[in-house]
Amino acid sequence: MTPSVTSSSSLSPPPPSSSSSSSSLSSLPFTSPFMNSTPASQTPGSPSTPPESASPQAALSLYGIARRYCREEILVTPLRWTGRHLELLQCSFGKPLPEPTTAATQSMTEEDYSEERSGTLHLEDFFRYYYKAQFREQGIRLLLTRDGCPLVAYDAVRLYFNGCVAKRMECVSLCLRGDDQEGLEHRRPVAGFIDRSHIELLRKETIGYRSRHYNPPILRLYNKKWRKISPPEPLYDPYIVALLIGVAQQKRRHFQEVNSSEEAVHGMVSVLSTFYSKGKSEVIGEEAYMGWMYLYQANIPSSLLDMFENANAPPSSQPSVTVQVITISYAPLATLRARLLELLLPETLASTVHYGSSPGRKRKYDGQGTAQPSSREAPSG
């Protein structure tokens, strides 16, 4: 059952007032359920065992859950998802894991990578302006999409609800490149990518404090709303779960469009996230080179995708999702591109892409001429 299309104004985040918010929710058929009513003390999706399924909720559709918890703000934009929405979706995060050893980096060394092959030139601005989220995003985007890499980048991941686009979620959408993908409406997705500070900026825009003058009452109201929707632990941000669901939806639509017999829910979907991380370095000013990023991966079950496809239909079985968190160190920079591609790409592609001989002078980029350490042990936290 598909709701009628509303104007773009109906897609805006709910106003601050709870009374006006409830009236605006009726005009939001395209915003995903499960989004915004957790006490500030609740940690969204903190590492734990998946939440136990509650029997009264087990057979409910998304609309059914929203009606059952009608006193809570359930139908809101993904940027306002909290731990309560992850609880209702039966989603949880695992503890961060160290980066696994990949085939290419196990059999090859930094000296085997040319400058073109490693893509380290694209990381110069990444580290020069490391304190700026847009340069962190731009650096990884260029690293994974230039110099013959098999990925192409788009500006958003769409979240579908009742068969229609509920929300255009801002991020870098990484899809497979190729002539066979050109004419498709839904390219095969590989991963979403967003910087943690970008999520914070987008989330702040949903509660929109733009006063030109210092106004204590308004500022207190803003801070109260911010504490309500801001995750206590940014590592376990509910927006990441929304992106994973959006990538899984696009993956399913891609296979439906190409009439593939491959089951779209097989295999994990991924989201990359950078942030202002710094590691320990013996050289002052080079702590950023020892930083790290996170890779989130999860198997999104078809029952959960079906719930978003038809919000009135209860699931055949209660879905449960555990998001795996992998810590990826930047160092050694020469192998960062290869390591990321191997973790992101389907197994059949990862073994054949970008590992042939590549011409070009060899150099280990360090920004200042200092060789980077070869240790790939992931930092904790």
TrEMBL record:
Region annotation (Disordered) ranges: 1-56, 355-381
Annotated Polar residues bias: 34-56, 369-381
Biased composition (Low complexity): 1-11, 18-33
Name of the protein in question: Uncharacterized protein
Source organism per UniProt: Hypocrea jecorina (strain QM6a)
Origin organism lineage: Eukaryota, Fungi, Dikarya, Ascomycota, Pezizomycotina
